[in-house]
């Protein structure tokens, strides 16, 4: 890993175009000395996220710079309380001096996080090493009054933030629906019209006097995977979420892919069935129409399952393991329908690594293995190409909250995502 002079990009900014240096209208900006300092800080913090606690000597080796340079970057972060030195541990090298590993200070300011889904709000504080504190939950009427919703989200966040020992670095929001992450606006939420058109970032920023960022819920899952989960240290992977809706997000060549104003990655609305069933979005044949909970429950009802409205992937896995043929068959079709979307992604982007979230992840290793086998059968692979399908084991809600916090890490601490 090299920590050299490379521009970092905040939410929504475009990636580098190496062939031009085009000034205001172009894609590349030169960086000032102070910006360079922030970037170097970000790179060191990122190395700690990717590798765990490391001594100055190890960080210098990872960065390909000398120890004096690393000390110049790390020491101010220790003095301001962001990082802390652990107890000395014996060196790996024969005759080497004991080294003191450096990692995040548990007393450092935390990150505020909000998960906003139709009818449900969760807020919490997240430590720099990813621990969740002061979790607070509330419900709201997705078809209700805008003022009532704002009162609920402000109260819920206040209850969480009041438990912080010092002001958090900022608040990150993971929201369902169509999000303009550049302008902090929730453009539309099919299942919660009360949120449609809401300038939530401006409102919360003014109310709490803290920096606020927002992104699409599946993209927050991806960020949670990247900083704190199975995406740690990876350069290419996608997160796939199934629930009442289907969503996903991409990490490509070491960057979160957002598309224009965060509009990229509407995976649920890629078409898998031309002229197929009507989707919530008003179009036909979207992936979401055959690989999310509403489809699963409709099929369960059609096949005569008891309590079809409570069918989940976890329930199908359990019943299939007990020998229920119908559950086994429906589970096979569900995992195959999920695999079809992954197949299209694999053929387009060749990411080779997919992390499952939500209902499909609730089916555990059994569901993941079925998805993997379907992808293996469907995809046109190159020789020796391995495709991994993994689960984020800590649960979708916590991953999204950690990911929401991760959005603040990248915007405030200049970590590169
Ligand atoms: Zn759709």
UniProtKB/TrEMBL annotation:
Origin superkingdom: Bacteria
Stretches with biased composition (Polar residues): 1-11
InterPro entries membership: ATPase_NBD, ROK, WH-like_DNA-bd_sf, WH_DNA-bd_sf
Keywords for this protein: Kinase, Plasmid, Transferase
Sequence intervals crossing the membrane: none
Region listing for Disordered, in residue ranges: 1-25
MF terms (GO), sorted A to Z: kinase activity
PANTHER family: BIFUNCTIONAL UDP-N-ACETYLGLUCOSAMINE 2-EPIMERASE_N-ACETYLMANNOSAMINE KINASE, ROK (REPRESSOR, ORF, KINASE) FAMILY
Family: Belongs to the ROK (NagC/XylR) family.
Protein name as annotated: NBD/HSP70 family sugar kinase
């Amino acid at each position: 890993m090299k920590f050299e002079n490379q521009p970092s990009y905040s939410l929504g900014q475009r990636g580098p175009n190496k062939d031009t240096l085009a000034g205001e209208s172009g894609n590349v900006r030169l960086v000032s000395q102070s910006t360079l300092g922030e970037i170097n800080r970000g790179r060191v913090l990122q190395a700690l996220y990717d590798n765990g606690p490391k001594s100055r000597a190890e960080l210098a080796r990872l960065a390909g710079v000398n120890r004096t340079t690393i000390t110049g970057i790390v020491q101010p972060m220790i003095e301001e309380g962001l990082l802390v030195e652990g107890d000395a541990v014996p060196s790996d090298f024969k005759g080497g001096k004991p080294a003191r590993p450096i990692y995040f200070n548990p007393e450092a300011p935390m990150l505020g996080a909000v998960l906003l889904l139709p009818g449900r709000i969760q807020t919490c504080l997240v430590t720099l090493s990813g621990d969740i504190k002061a979790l607070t939950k509330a419900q709201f009427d997705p078809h209700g009054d805008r003022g009532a919703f704002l009162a609920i989200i402000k109260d819920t966040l206040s209850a969480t933030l009041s438990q912080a020992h010092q002001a958090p670095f900022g608040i990150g929001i993971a929201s369902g629906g169509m999000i303009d992450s550049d302008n902090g606006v929730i453009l539309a939420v099919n299942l919660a019209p009360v949120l449609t058109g809401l300038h939530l970032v401006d409102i919360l920023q003014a109310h709490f006097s803290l920096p606020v960022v927002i992104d699409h819920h599946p993209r927050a899952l991806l960020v949670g995977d990247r900083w704190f989960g199975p995406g740690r240290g990876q350069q290419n992977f996608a997160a796939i979420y199934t629930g009442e809706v289907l969503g996903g997000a991409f990490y490509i060549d070491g960057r979160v892919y957002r598309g224009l104003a965060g509009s990229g990655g509407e995976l649920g609305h890629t078409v898998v069935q031309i002229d197929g069933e009507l989707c919530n979005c008003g179009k036909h044949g979207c992936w979401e129409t055959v690989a999310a909970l509403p489809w699963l429950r409709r099929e369960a009802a059609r096949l005569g399952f008891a309590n079809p409205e409570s069918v989940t992937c976890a329930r199908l896995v359990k019943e299939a393991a007990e020998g229920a043929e119908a559950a086994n068959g429906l589970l096979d079709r569900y995992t195959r329908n999920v695999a079809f979307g992954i197949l299209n992604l694999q053929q387009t982007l060749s990411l080779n690594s997919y992390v499952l979230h939500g209902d499909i992840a609730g089916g555990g290793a059994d569901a993941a293995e079925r998805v993997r086998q379907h992808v293996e059968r469907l995809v046109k692979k190159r020789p020796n190409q391995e495709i991994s399908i993994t689960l984020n084991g800590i649960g979708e809600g916590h991953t999204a909250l950690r990911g929401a916090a991760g959005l603040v890490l990248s915007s405030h601490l200049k970590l590169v995502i």
